[in-house]
Amino acid sequence: MANKAYKFRLYPTQEQEQLLAKTFGCVRFVYNKMLEERKQIYEKFKDDKEALKQYKFPTPAKYKRDFPWLKEVDSLALANAQLNLQKAFTNFFSGRAGFPKFKSRKAKQSYTTNVVNGNIKLADGYIKLPKLKWVKLRQHRQIPVHHIIKACTITKTKTGKYFISILTEYEHQPVPKDVKNVVGLDFSMNTLYVDSEGKRANYPRFYRQALEKLAQALHFGQSVHDNGWGMFTSFLQYKLAEQGKKLIKIDKWFPSSKTCSHCGRVKASLSLTERQFRCECGFVADRDTNAAINIKKEGLKQLGTA
């Protein structure tokens, strides 16, 4: 099974906007309430991991008893607030993120709901959502009939526009492609990547254009952040898999930059300031292009053994 999301513009009525605002607020309230209690328990048992694991944290149902007005909004939205907090703590305990923070009114306004017993439906330019009933939307493309709606995330932008992201699930068995076209991509501090043909990504970095010459050494970490290399490779892998194609990631210790793509000789060292690769065999090339060619060759080797 595979997943795909479809995003459309929503046009709620004034009454529906009021309920959306209330839902955003209730989701934030429940998230913060649960975080407040979990923070207290964490401080109490942070040195006793077993006691922390066994502790039963309250659910949104408990808050509904204490705060009856929470019953006015979609209960699944509140349940997802709990799941989001659990995910935040999982990331914290695994070292992937810091301790979860409280959500302010200025934070992103959104909530997620799920399909239960046909409570979400699409028909004639409208979508049926829990509590909101039928909401008008601009469906600029059709969702294939074999795609099953699993969840929806409703978001309000800072400019007051509403959008819905519809997550679908479908049976997907991509037909493997014959290996005809292979390209190597080498991460580049300045342009996201350089491929094995010497082409560079047409990638706007949005800021620090004037500091391009300084995008080495000291600013290397910031450049990685700007480019979003991890996000790019994840998206690329997803899109390739949809088409029956494959993304091969080369081991980070593979000496792609130090290896001559012409003769195979490996240099003992290569500083970041050396932008031209020069080999004793006489081969000269752009450093990143040379690395991309080596990555392509290594990928072809792995394809042959896959």
UniProtKB/TrEMBL annotation:
Q: Which domain of life is it from?
A: Bacteria
Origin species, per record, is Caldalkalibacillus thermarum (strain TA2.A1)
| Gene Ontology terms for molecular function | DNA binding; metal ion binding
Residue ranges constituting the Transposase putative helix-turn-helix domain according to the UniProt record: 1-45
Give the UniProt keywords, A-Z: DNA-binding, Metal-binding, Zinc
The protein's matches in InterPro entries, at most eight in alphabetical order, are given as: Cas12f1-like_TNB, Transposase_put_HTH
Q: What's the protein called, per UniProt? A: Transposase
Domain Cas12f1-like TNB residues, every copy: 229-295
Question: Mind telling me which Pfam families this protein's record contains?
Answer: Cas12f1-like_TNB, HTH_OrfB_IS605
